[in-house]
């Protein structure tokens, strides 16, 4: 009987070093997950700050028996961004590539293909497997039908789906936090640190829509893939990724642990998730190739 | 031969769009050095009804363009759907049969197939691949033999200068037309609202998901049910392209992502040339032949004027200032202040 693993994805938001250290200490001590992704993936300007705490966080998690993976930045532009990708990709044992530059610098060593890479089919996945890809976290818009087709064609590839959290929808050269505060990226005053789950973006008629996080745009809604263990195994999925939010992520991990261990059904997992103070409504439309904001129970 | 313009002479190659055979003819006659187009299916990123080329039309288009001395670049630049990659492979085969001069691709599956089956086919990396660093460009160059990279519209001129010093491939940049605010090929906003997106289906903010709803004296433009913009009496209603809408954030209503502007970097042509860019690209495969003819003529005149020497900057921008149909323009990310 196979076991479905759980992971904590890389944190997208500009959290203070104290918050990062506390967050990962709790994950190390209490979260029933096998794997944790750490590192700055959104904005290179945040690196001089949080670079200082990653070694300590890495050690804390490793000592707690977690598999720790360094995630690389999604949209490298500056020399600093590139240096960080080059160093992490060359030196670390486990790396998640979120830009093809990281795959290049990995030079054939094993890596995780992150959700920011454009891997939409089995042929692309196969080429990257030949270059060292062992785990693949599909782009969030990829329908489950396509994920299954890739899993079927490549049974040796571990598939890790983005199961919980606001959906990472886009990255840009422009910083929307800075723009909303009438600043520019170059003098942003790190204003994104005010919004621990992203800045709400609503429509003119006040419908919740998106969420801005520096150069990143996320959904306002919270993705929740709540397929049961047997369904996940049938589809060839080996791990679920839970994306960090400013809520009790230990409880979220416990709900998913019960789900993938077969202790509870999807409906109970959904009810328990709904009871949490989530930053947005639940969504799972992408799973069936529908608009990503839809929650198909509605 | 493509790319030669850069070897012995620094002239910019002008790459122009053609959504239809009529537009291709117009572009060729107006003096386009190269013309890009796509097949009429989901293999290209402008998969809109009434656009693009059948195989027969592509074959005829290549012949016609070559007669005018223009090159043809064919975009097979969406990401192949899992389980259906044969559709994209067939498209690559069709491009080769047509005698076109290069293929523009983003998906590793497509590049891999082209390299394996058609080693002599010239490969251009689509903007949809979002390769913005020497490392990512080197990956595509060394793995698939890519000869030209279309740069993402997130880079400043200064960054393009630096990049060109570090890479040996040719670079091509957008200078006119529609402007993606998000990094191309890294944006799922459209599928979040509609289920359809550039990477999945070759469309963004598709017309079939658009509605205009009146509420009193206001008109709301919606996409997939989300209000993207609203217009009061006397305001001209625009198309609800998701990233060009008006939204509320921090208690204020604004064009948060980008104003409804289009790109015009004509004034930067001399700087782009100095930056070592090989080719400049005009967006607009959805445009009619009259528009194409006018824009191509203006840009060709601008490029030729620059070749004739002197500082053409002011002349170039004057020549094109009338081109954007009453709309507003931006030089986009090329100037760092945009960020």
Explain what the structure shows.
The complex is a heterodimer of chains A (298) and B (339). Chain A has helices spanning 17-30, 47-50, 54-63, 79-91, 100-106, 122-130, 144-153, 176-180, 229-235, 249-260, 266-274; strands spanning 5-8, 35-38, 67-71, 95-97, 111-113, 133-136, 158-172, 199-202, 208-213, 216-224, 239-242, 282-283. Chain A is an alpha/beta fold and 298 residues long. Chain A has an eight-stranded parallel β-barrel with strand order 1-2-3-4-5-6-7-11, surrounded by four helices. The longest helix of chain A has 14 residues, at 17-30. The mean pLDDT of chain A is 96. With 339 residues, chain B is of the alpha/beta class. Chain B has twelve helices and 16 strands. Chain B has an eight-stranded parallel barrel with strand order 1-2-3-4-5-6-7-15, surrounded by six helices. Chain B has a three-stranded antiparallel β-sheet with strand order 9-10-11, with no helix packed on it. A two-stranded antiparallel sheet of chain B has the order 12-13. In chain B, a hairpin with a 2-residue loop joins strand 10 and strand 11. Strand 7 (158-172) of chain A pairs antiparallel with strand 8 of chain B.
């Amino acid at each position: 009987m196979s076991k479905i693993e759980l992971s904590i994805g890389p944190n997208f938001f500009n959290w203070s070093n104290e918050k990062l250290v506390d967050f990962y200490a709790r994950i190390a001590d209490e979260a029933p997950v096998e794997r944790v992704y750490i590192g700055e993936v959104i904005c290179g300007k945040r690196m001089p700050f949080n670079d200082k705490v990653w070694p300590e966080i890495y050690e804390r998690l490793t000592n707690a028996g977690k598999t720790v993976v360094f995630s690389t930045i999604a949209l490298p532009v500056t020399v600093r961004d590139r240096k960080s990708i080059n160093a992490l990709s060359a030196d670390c044992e486990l790396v998640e590539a979120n830009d093809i530059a990281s795959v290049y610098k990995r030079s054939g060593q094993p890596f995780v293909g992150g959700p920011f890479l454009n891997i939409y089919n089995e042929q692309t996945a196969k080429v990257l497997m030949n270059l060292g890809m062992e785990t693949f976290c599909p782009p969030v818009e990829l329908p489950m039908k396509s994920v299954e087709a890739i899993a079927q064609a490549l049974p040796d590839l571990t598939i890790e789906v983005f199961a919980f959290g606001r959906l990472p929808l886009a990255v840009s050269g422009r910083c929307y936090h800075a723009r909303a505060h009438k600043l520019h990226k170059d003098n942003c005053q790190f204003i994104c640190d005010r919004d621990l789950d992203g800045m709400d973006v609503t429509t003119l008629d006040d419908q919740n829509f998106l969420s801005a996080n520096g150069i990143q745009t996320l959904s306002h809604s919270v993705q929740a893939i709540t397929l049961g263990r047997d369904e996940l195994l049938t589809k060839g999925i080996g791990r679920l990724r839970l994306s960090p939010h400013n809520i009790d992520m230990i409880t979220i991990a416990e709900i998913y642990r019960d789900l993938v261990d077969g202790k509870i059904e999807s409906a109970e997992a959904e009810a328990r998730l709904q009871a949490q103070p989530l930053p947005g409504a639940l969504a799972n439309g992408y799973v069936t190739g529908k608009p990503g904001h839809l929650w198909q129970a509605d | 031969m493509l790319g030669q313009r850069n070897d012995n002479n620094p002239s910019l190659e002008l790459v122009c769009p053609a959504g239809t055979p009529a537009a291709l003819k117009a572009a060729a006659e107006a003096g386009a050095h190269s013309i890009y187009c796509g097949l009429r299916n989901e293999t290209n990123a402008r998969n809109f009804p009434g656009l693009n080329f059948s195989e027969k039309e592509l074959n005829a288009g290549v012949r016609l363009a070559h007669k005018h001395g223009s090159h043809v670049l064919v975009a097979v630049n969406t990401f192949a759907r899992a389980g259906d990659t044969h559709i994209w492979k067939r498209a690559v085969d069709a491009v080769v049969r047509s005698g076109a001069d290069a293929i523009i691709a983003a998906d590793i599956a497509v590049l891999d197939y082209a390299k394996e089956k058609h080693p002599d086919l010239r490969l251009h990396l689509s903007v949809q691949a979002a390769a913005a660093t020497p490392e990512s460009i080197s990956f595509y160059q060394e793995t698939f033999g890519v000869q030209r990279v279309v740069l993402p519209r997130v880079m400043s001129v200064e960054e393009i200068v630096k990049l060109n010093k570090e890479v040996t491939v040719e670079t091509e940049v957008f200078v006119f037309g529609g402007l993606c605010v998000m990094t191309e090929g890294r944006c799922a906003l459209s599928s979040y609202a509609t289920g359809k997106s550039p990477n999945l289906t070759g469309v963004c903010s598709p017309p079939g998901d658009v509605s205009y709803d009146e509420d009193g004296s206001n008109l709301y433009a919606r996409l997939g049910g989300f209000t993207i913009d609203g217009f009061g009496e006397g305001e001209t209603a625009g198309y609800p392209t998701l990233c060009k809408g008006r939204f509320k954030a921090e208690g204020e209503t604004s064009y948060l992502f980008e104003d409804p502007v289009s790109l015009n970097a004509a004034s930067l042509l001399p700087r782009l040339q100095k930056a070592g860019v090989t080719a400049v690209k005009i967006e607009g495969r959805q445009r009619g032949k009259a528009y194409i003819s006018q824009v191509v003529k203006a840009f060709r005149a601008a490029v030729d004027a620059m070749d004739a020497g002197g500082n053409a900057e002011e002349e170039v921008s004057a020549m094109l200032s009338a081109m954007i149909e009453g709309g507003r323009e931006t030089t986009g990310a090329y100037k760092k202040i945009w960020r």
